[in-house]
Amino acid sequence: MKYYIIAGEASGDLHASNLMKAIQEKDGEAVFRCWGGDLMQQAGGEVVKHYRDLAFMGFAEVVRNLRTIAGNLSFCRKDISSWKPDVVILVDYPGFNLRIAKFASQAGFRVVYYISPQVWAWKKSRVHKIKKYVGLMIVILPFEQDFYAKYDYPVAYAGHPLLDVILPPGEAHQPKPQESEPLVALLPGSRKQEIERILPIMLSVVPSYPGISFVIAGAPGISPDFYTRFTGQSGVSLQSGRTYELLRNARAALVTSGTASLETALFMVPQVICYKGSRLSFAIARRIVKVPFIGLPNLIMQQKIVEELIQDDLTPARLKEALDPLLREGAVRDGIIGQYSQLRTLLGGPGASQRAAAKILEFFKGSA
Asked: Average pLDDT in the 172-194 region?
């Protein structure tokens, strides 16, 4: 079969690449044409657009890049029509992928959506477009099935694919190593715009902790030189392509909201979730986003288990105040780690990619 897969961010590249590997185990003749990144290419896909050329953060940034986005949409429609895949698989990235879902469905292509847009947070009206144009929706968060059921739209639950990566058999409950020098991981995001806003604030707390090592997790596709302008003589080091190794050894972490916050939780690392966007983007988001938290650990557990510092609350003083109790033994650390254990249980075990691949092949056979 021919699979056309579109992922527009680093996390989508990761999950799509694992899905591709799972599909290959079940379909020995699978051929992939992709919008994604290095991991999808390594999994055997022909990448026609890299996600680093697609990621625009916030409403204001999207508006400034409307011409580029329109050009990408036009190219994608023509490419799908020319290549004629058996199925189009859309991975998250809703602003772009929902438009492609409409086109692909109307053009007669089978459409699968893997990793639901966060319609439960904002733009719930998108559910109606999903029902109309998406033949199979595969969700990865436990509460999403109930959400879609309210709209009489059955979806398939595969579990969260991060468990396949972070908790392989035999490693799920290994204790953290005892660090000789405590380590704080800095995960300032995967887009240049968010790194520029958030990393300087993260770095501002470093002088307050002379006996602690701070290390930045470099994002895929971003040159180490980009980080140098922020680190200066701070002594903070950079590790690119080694985020999981870094989290495996970290005592605490400062994390930009997104998939990284869930990855950090699954590694059992107490964290502070940080977010700061442009004032226009944040003002718009505050009016339309209808969820009590921005961090995935808090959303999944439906309570605040880790601190969130958002927009004007993200200051050096507030960040230090939130980080302090995470670095010492006590009730705060113990409480977070206990909640993380419950989170792991709630998300189920490994095998999400294999389950999603099986559902895609069943869907294709059933609609053939």
From this structure: 76
pLDDT number for residue 365? 85
**Number of other residues whose CB lies within 10 A of the CB of residue 178:** 5
Instruction: Note the pTM of the prediction, 2 decimals.
Output: 0.76
Paired with 271 in beta bridges are 253
Q: What is d(CA 244, CA 264) in angstroms, rounded to the nearest whole number? A: 9
Count the Cβ atoms, other than its own, within 10 Å of residue 256. Answer: 24
Alpha-carbon span 254 to 261, nearest angstrom: 9
Record the tokens describing residue 179, joined without a space.
């660090």
For residue 29, how many other CB atoms are within 10 A of its CB? 7
| The CATH fold of domain 183-347 | Rossmann fold (3.40.50)
- Confirm or reject CATH 3.40.50.2000 for domain 2-161+351-367, answering yes or no: yes
Over residues 80-97, the mean pLDDT reads 96
Domain ranges of the chain: 2-161+351-367, 183-347
- How many Å apart are CA 19 and CA 361, to the nearest integer? 12
Are 216 and 238 contacting, i.e. CB atoms less than 8 angstroms apart? yes
* Alpha-carbon span 199 to 189, nearest angstrom: 9
Contact 287, 209 (CB under 8 A): no
Residue recorded with tokens 């994604």: 36
